[in-house]
Amino acid sequence: MRYRNSLIPTLKQEPSDAEVVSHKLMVRAGMIRQVARGIYDFLPLGLRVVRKVEQIVREEMDRSGAQEILMPAICPAELWQESGRWDKYGKELLRMKDRYERDFCFGPTHEEVVTDLVRRDVRSYRELPINLYQVQSKFRDEMRPRFGLMRGREFIMKDAYSFHADSDDCNREYEVMAKTYRRIFERCGLSTRMVESDTGAIGGRRAHEFQVLADSGEDAIVSCNACEYAANVEKAEIGATRSPVAATASPLKKVRTPGKRTIEEVSAFLSEPPERFIKTLLYLTNRGETVAALVRGDHEISEIKLRTMLGVEWVAMADPETVEKLTGAAVGFAGPIGLKARVVADEAVQHLRSAVVGANETDHHLTDVDAQRDLAGVTYADLRLARAGDPCPRCSSGNFDANRGIEVGNIFYLGTKYSAPMKCTFLDAAGQETPMEMGCYGIGITRTAAAAIEQNHDNNGIIWPTALAPAHVHIVQVGTDENVRNAADTLYNDLLAAGIEVLLDDREERPGIKFKDADLIGIPYRVNVGAKALERNAVEFKPRREAKADDLPIANAVETLVTAVRRDLAK
RNA sequence: CGGGGUGUAGCGCAGACUGGUAGCGCACCUGCCUUGGGCGCAGGGGGUCGCAGGUUCAAAUCCUGUCACCCCGACCA
């Protein structure tokens, strides 16, 4: 690749619309350009990175026994109506009509299409298991796309779907995919964590996410500092939580708390720590039910856990009118005592004694609440978000560390969620018609590219892991005289012949500009070819991560670079 | 969807309050000069001021509408 003939529009200044480092650097390095909200052009360098990720994914998926297919991006509504998701998926599903007014959608994921394919062509247990994957552009009309490629609306995803005769075999494949994913991200040079996650909108029984650890990540995860347990905070189970217990129980007391609505305000007003409060959160469910959920004042509720516990599809905070109608008090004074609603509570509430709750009366709270004595008929469950320091549920000694992460991959055990309603069945050995057990496995290709930058950059620009870099070697032709040009050309051609990918900066620019651009673009190995070193029969070798360049005899240059690149790629 | 913000040259911005016909830096083109971490000098090209309407002798500037993009929120009473 010769710079002079390439479209690599680097920017000296930061783009005004970028917030996170990967977005800024990809725009500045001339890799992507925004076309519309959440929709991007990939320029030559950006596309090369995307292709690198795809290639690693393909190699490892193929190695695991999966087969690549390609399904349509535009999918007919009927399949989605059959699974029920045409109505459920909501506004994220981009819908359109063809010239005959028939309904279609731009696929955000392909469970329906692949299940339709398999049910038509797979009949017997002898043809199972099968794992089909594709690499394709997806479209999800996100409420709020942001952070460049991190949360785009159109993005490239690898999605795989496996079909099995029984759940044991499906679980086996789940483990195979977990291993495959570990290898994929390792080869990409990324540090990831596999964490338990909610099964969410896709549904199913069991799920893990692969998170690239990065402070800018949108997801919060916890991991045990003593064992292997790690999970998304929304999902993370929590070991037994001790709550402060007062020595003796006192009778309930109503106190005036004028205008003090939040835990913080009441806590300061009564001089009681938030751990002694019980927060009462009123929720509406899709069944039209109103539920009060209680968590300790210093804890936060996990709506996902609440949803799971209630067995409903969605929960939403009640609007102020509903709250006032139900409690007979202004917002801020809701409490569980005397409330005409189903009450559920987080386990940490169970042993609270001498706690503070809203009185269901404007400007009043109740104190000296004893959960065991005063909260009758309450169902207890693990309902809160995990946080750093919480006890691990799996081992006795560990506590949680908290991290932020970028979800680059996920694996789901779907069971028969799609195969049953869509009648994707096979005949088992006994001649019995049985729905297939399914798993699905996704990797955000474009997001992985962005996550790699979040994890690998410095003040001067990107520092690509060799496996994902748009090229392995960046030759900077320093100066334009014939000797220099010839030496640079020779090295360029020799490296290409040795199978190394090279960007040759043959522009007529001053050296400073070329060096700055090289750092910005982040190709892992840079070679400066200039008159000074040539006099010593050398070129300068500067790995992107190193501060200084070293002389490299021209005679050894190709071999040294080939060795360095091969060593990196073998990791 | 709610709240806030911004749209002026390829990029980053000023001009707007107080209306008078558009400017700065970078980039780009030409010449000279220079050439090892975003050189210097001189000259030059490039703008429907997001779009539509309105007010006015006159609108980038005021008013109305609209579109686009960005940020915060849409779970913690």
Question: Top keywords for this entry?
Answer:
single chain; 571 residues; alpha+beta; nine-stranded mixed sheet; five-stranded mixed sheet; 15 helices; RNA-binding
Explain this structure.
The chain has 571 residues and is of the alpha+beta class. 28% of the residues lie in helices and 29% in strands. The chain is built from 15 helices and 31 strands. A hairpin with a 2-residue loop joins strand 1 and strand 2. The longest helix is centred in the N-terminal third of the chain and has 21 residues, at 167-187. The structure holds one RNA strand of 77 nucleotides.
Describe how the helices and strands are arranged.
Elements: H1 21-28, E1 32-36, E2 39-42, H2 44-63, E3 67-68, E4 74-76, H3 77-83, H4 85-88, E5 94-97, E6 103-106, H5 111-121, E7 130-139, E8 154-164, H6 167-187, E9 192-196, E10 206-213, E11 219-224, E12 230-232, E13 253-256, H7 263-270, E14 278-285, E15 290-296, H8 303-310, E16 315-317, H9 320-327, E17 342-346, E18 355-358, E19 364-369, H10 371-374, E20 379-381, E21 400-415, E22 425-427, E23 433-435, E24 437-444, H11 445-455, E25 457-458, E26 461-462, E27 473-478, H12 482-497, E28 502-505, H13 511-521, E29 525-530, H14 531-535, E30 538-543, E31 550-553, H15 554-570
Parallel strand pairs: 3-7, 15-17, 17-20, 27-28, 27-29
Antiparallel strand pairs: 1-2, 4-6, 5-6, 7-8, 8-24, 9-10, 10-21, 11-12, 11-21, 13-19, 14-15, 14-16, 18-19, 21-24, 22-23, 25-26, 29-30, 30-31
Helix pairs in contact: 1-11, 2-6, 2-11
The structure holds one RNA strand of 77 nucleotides.
